[in-house]
Write a structure and sequence with these properties.
This protein is α+β, with helices and mostly antiparallel strands. It has a domain of 189 residues: MetI-like (MetI-like fold, Orthogonal Bundle). The protein contains 12 helices and 8 strands. It has a 4-stranded antiparallel beta sheet with strand order 1-2-3-8. The longest helix is centred in the first third of the chain and has 34 residues. The protein starts with 14 loop residues before the first helix and ends in a 5-residue tail after the last helix.
Length: 392
């Protein structure tokens, strides 16, 4: 056996040492850059006679001194700045949460339309995607605001659809459930039905994988749950319908959407749905042809094939790009300032102009959007892990 004398590698040639040293230098450079930036900021503040701090936000002696049109909570100009920021925060959340849900639903419908065997449906979906994706979002917002919502009839002669939908240049008025015990019980029934449906869907998937049968009894139960849910929505919820009051010349009752909120919600939903549609189409087409043929050999057809075999597999491919689209919608909501909707960015901009605390309010806005996006990313990452195939 031959003994081989190995020479010790010098530290300056050791790859492990080089990697650690490189990372240390990068971290050191970042800290030096931040220190220089902070020192320069403090020096400039001192030269201008300004101070850095966030105390003005919670100072109850300082009034916000501006109105907010869309306020989901009671607010008046005499409230402190933190109340105005809270209103802007809630307005942003309203747009983001509602927009993500509606954009996802519309995106799935358009994505499936792109794959439809019906020539007309396919072409309409294709034209929608190509026009919306290739048009700037800001331009679309201006179109919806100035050419659509502000062009509705005046409040004394609104456009009425189905005797329950009112459209005027002062807003959109929709039926909405009252907050009472009847509505609460109906919501409990709907949530319970949703849980039962999820459990049955998982059980049916296992039956198909193990026995190769479609489990028609499950489809019957789905139909019963669907009928119960529809009846609960129609008759269980205590709906309040809008109506026009001639004496005060206003529409009362139901849910009121201001032109600014309706514009932002419609613009973000339609714009993001076009991108989601392409994600859905690509995810479905990524499923191998053999899966389609195997599912058809088991007797699965139509929506059952898509729901139990194709879509669950496509979801593993779709979730990462869907995360990006949801994050883009959350960040694009900051364009609300262009149409006068008071979200967190618009409110912070007004406070910055009043107080001169531009750096502080900029940090507030950055932190807010960072937290929003981290929450969305965490939720989608959890969903992504839950649908991945578990290897033994």
């Amino acid at each position: 056996m031959t003994n081989i004398n190995e020479e010790k590698v010098p530290c300056w040639r050791d790859s492990r040492v080089i990697k650690i040293l490189t990372q240390f230098l990068i971290v050191l450079f970042i800290f030096v850059f931040l220190f220089i930036f902070a020192n320069n900021l403090i020096r400039n503040f001192q030269q201008l006679g300004l101070t850095f701090g966030f105390g003005f936000i919670v100072d109850t002696d300082l009034n916000s001194r501006f109105n907010i049109g869309d306020s989901p909570i009671p607010y008046k100009p005499t409230d402190p700045y933190f109340k105005a920021i809270l209103v802007g925060l809630l307005n942003s959340l309203r747009v983001m949460i509602t927009g993500i849900i509606l954009a996802f639903i519309l995106g799935i419908m358009v994505g499936l339309g792109r794959l439809s065997d019906n020539w007309l449906v396919q072409k309409i979906a294709t034209i929608y995607v190509e026009i919306i994706r290739n048009t700037p979002l800001l331009l679309q917002l201006f179109f919806w605001y100035f050419a659509v919502f502000l062009k509705f009839p005046k409040i004394d002669n609104p456009l009425i659809l189905l005797n329950s939908l009112f459209f005027s240049n002062q807003g959109v008025y929709l039926p909405f459930p009252l907050r009472n015990i009847q509505t609460l019980l109906a919501v409990v029934v709907l949530v319970f039905s949703g849980f039962i449906t999820i459990i049955l869907w998982r059980k049916q998937t296992q039956v198909i994988q193990q026995q190769g049968t479609t489990g028609n009894v499950y489809n019957l139960v789905y139909g019963v749950i669907g009928v119960i849910s529809v009846l609960t929505i129609i008759f269980g919820l205590d709906w309040q319908f809008p109506n026009y009051d001639d004496q005060i010349q206003r529409i009362q009752g139901g849910l009121t959407l201001s032109p600014e909120f309706a514009t932002l919600l419609a613009g973000l939903t339609i714009y993001t749905a076009a991108f989601i549609a392409e994600v859905v189409r690509a995810g479905i087409q990524s499923v191998s042809k053999g899966q389609w043929e195997a599912a058809k050999a088991l007797g699965l057809k139509g929506t059952l094939l898509m729901r139990l075999v194709i879509f669950p597999q496509a979801l593993r491919v779709m979730i990462p790009p869907l995360t990006s689209e949801f994050l883009n919608l959350a960040k694009n909501s900051s364009l609300a300032i262009a149409i006068g909707y008071n979200d967190i960015y618009a409110v912070s901009n007004t406070i910055s102009n009043q107080t001169g605390k531009s750096i502080e309010m900029l940090l507030v806005v950055m932190t807010t959007y960072l937290i929003f996006n981290l929450i969305i990313s965490s939720g989608m990452n959890w969903l992504n892990r839950s649908v991945q195939i578990k290897e033994k």
